[in-house]
UniProtKB/TrEMBL annotation:
<dbReference type="GO" id="GO:0004649">
    <property type="term" value="F:poly(ADP-ribose) glycohydrolase activity"/>
</dbReference>
<dbReference type="GO" id="GO:0005634">
    <property type="term" value="C:nucleus"/>
</dbReference>
<keyword id="KW-0378">Hydrolase</keyword>
<keyword id="KW-0479">Metal-binding</keyword>
<feature type="binding site">
    <location>
        <position position="325"/>
    </location>
    <ligand>
        <name>Mg(2+)</name>
    </ligand>
</feature>
<keyword id="KW-0227">DNA damage</keyword>
<keyword id="KW-0158">Chromosome</keyword>
<keyword id="KW-0539">Nucleus</keyword>
<comment type="similarity">
    <text>Belongs to the ADP-ribosylglycohydrolase family.</text>
</comment>
<dbReference type="GO" id="GO:0005694">
    <property type="term" value="C:chromosome"/>
</dbReference>
<protein>
    <recommendedName>
        <fullName>ADP-ribosylhydrolase ARH3</fullName>
        <ecNumber>3.2.1.143</ecNumber>
    </recommendedName>
</protein>
<feature type="binding site">
    <location>
        <position position="324"/>
    </location>
    <ligand>
        <name>Mg(2+)</name>
    </ligand>
</feature>
<feature type="coiled-coil region">
    <location>
        <begin position="31"/>
        <end position="58"/>
    </location>
</feature>
<dbReference type="InterPro" id="IPR050792">
    <property type="entry name" value="ADP-ribosylglycohydrolase"/>
</dbReference>
<dbReference type="GO" id="GO:0006281">
    <property type="term" value="P:DNA repair"/>
</dbReference>
<keyword id="KW-0963">Cytoplasm</keyword>
<feature type="compositionally biased region" description="Basic and acidic residues">
    <location>
        <begin position="223"/>
        <end position="238"/>
    </location>
</feature>
Length: 375
């Protein structure tokens, strides 16, 4: 059912961010440590339920907080629901307001400059602050990808061209580097594709990658070509700007590598080295796609008893590095395929923001369904 899958994506993304946050850039993470953390969380819920059943008062403690990843995804979801379309000015204003209200959610080191500038209601060009990042080359952090899932869901059954254009404009509010844009497109394409596939039979991972590449290849080429044209125009007009030296199609190459990884038993070290778990888009977003597919197809040691969404989240966090972000992006894809029922109740009850995600999911589904009826 559509509702379960839209909610599944949003809720899985929130819990992955909340559970992953504790491990972000901590030095020694592995499967056992992540498993211990989730088991503890599950035991706490069991203990709490017992107490409630015995008539004792429910304690509010032990709720894991979400980070900037969810804060920004929520802004996109709420804006889409209110405007029934992408309204970049409104999304930018919501980003700014959220940041002003709760600046300690763990935002990226440089994006905060943009978020402060976006608070200015009279800003003529909302993309200007983002364009000025990193001496005019724009950020290539993964902040575009970490928050884009609601848009991938919103665009269910809309033409790919629309998904592409809307994704690019939402990304450019904070991230204008082509690597950030292509990475965000990879994530929104993956969420959108996962939601569209028949989930009554096991996922065909090879087919998923094939379809994903079919979407990504022309897009990646187009984004780099546009950038080169823009830069050469700036050069001719005498603007000083560095050449970026983008060569080939690095995202497509990484997606090809995922295909190879799924055929053999790849260890975490190799995944970290070749796909990456960094704060940069190119070194984290393809990894999220891999985590989704790995959870869907291979048993991850110690997690055999668990469902694919759980496996994906646990595995993504166990890789270390930018744990909240890789996990939230992987979970958003996985939840869109497997649905809400595959996110354990205990996890849902332990994380801040789940109730809102359920509500957002319901409203987004209403919008998508109304559109279906019309056409
Ligand atoms: O991309 P962004 O929103 O950060 C998201 C990350 C996630 O892990 C969240 O969970 C949160 O922890 O932060 O924020 P940006 O500040 O735009 O980018 C993040 C970082 O990427 C920057 O602080 C830089 O370290 C790096 N980075 C760059 N470094 C050099 N040159 C991004 N773009 C560049 C660049 O062009
Ligand atoms: Mg974060
Ligand atoms: Mg952080
Ligand atoms: Mg992060």
């Amino acid at each position: 059912m559509l509702l379960s899958r839209v909610r599944g994506s949003l809720v899985a993304a929130v819990v992955a961010d909340c559970i992953g946050a504790k491990f972000e850039f901590s030095r020694f993470v592995n499967i056992d440590k992540v498993l211990n953390a989730v088991k503890k969380l599950e035991q706490n819920r069991t203990t709490m339920k017992k107490k409630v059943a015995e008539g004792k008062k429910e304690k509010q403690g032990d709720v894991l907080s979400f980070t900037d990843d969810t804060a920004m995804a929520r802004s996109i979801a709420a804006s889409l629901i209110e405007h029934k379309d992408v309204n970049v000015r409104d999304i930018g204003a919501r980003f700014a307001k959220e940041f002003e209200k709760e600046p300690s959610r763990g935002y990226g080191g440089s994006v905060i400059t943009v978020l402060r500038a976006l608070a200015d209601q009279d800003l003529e060009d909302v993309f200007q602050p983002a364009r000025e990042q990193f001496d005019g080359s724009g950020s290539y952090g993964n902040g575009g990808g970490m928050r884009i899932a609601p848009l991938g869901l919103f665009c269910h059954q809309l033409p790919l061209q629309e998904l592409k254009e809307k994704t690019v404009s939402v990304t450019k509010l904070t991230h204008t580097h082509p690597y950030a844009i292509v990475g965000t497109l990879l994530e929104s394409y993956a969420v959108h594709l996962a939601l569209s596939l028949d989930n009554s039979k096991p996922l065909d991972t090879d087919n998923f990658l094939g379809q994903l590449l079919e979407r990504l290849r022309p897009t990646e080429k187009e984004i780099y070509d546009q950038r080169r044209q823009m830069k050469s125009k700036e050069k001719n007009s005498g603007d000083e700007s560095e050449e970026e030296g983008i060569e080939g199609l690095p995202y497509c190459n990484k997606v090809e590598l995922i295909r190879d990884f799924l055929k053999r038993d790849v260890d975490s070290k190799e995944v970290r080295k070749k796909l990456g778990t960094k704060v940069t888009a190119l070194d984290s977003i393809p990894t999220a796609v891999y985590c989704f597919l790995r959870g869907a197809s291979q048993s991850i040691p110690g997690t055999e008893e668990r469902g694919p969404v759980e496996q994906t989240i646990i595995y993504a966090i166990s890789l270390g590095g930018d744990t909240d972000t890789v996990a939230t992006m992987a979970a958003a894809i996985s939840g869109a395929f497997y649905g809400l029922e595959s996110v354990p109740q205990a996890w849902q009850e332990s994380c801040e923001g789940v109730r809102d995600a359920l509500l957002f999911g319901e409203k987004l589904t209403e919008i998508i369904s109304a559109r279906e009826v019309k056409s």
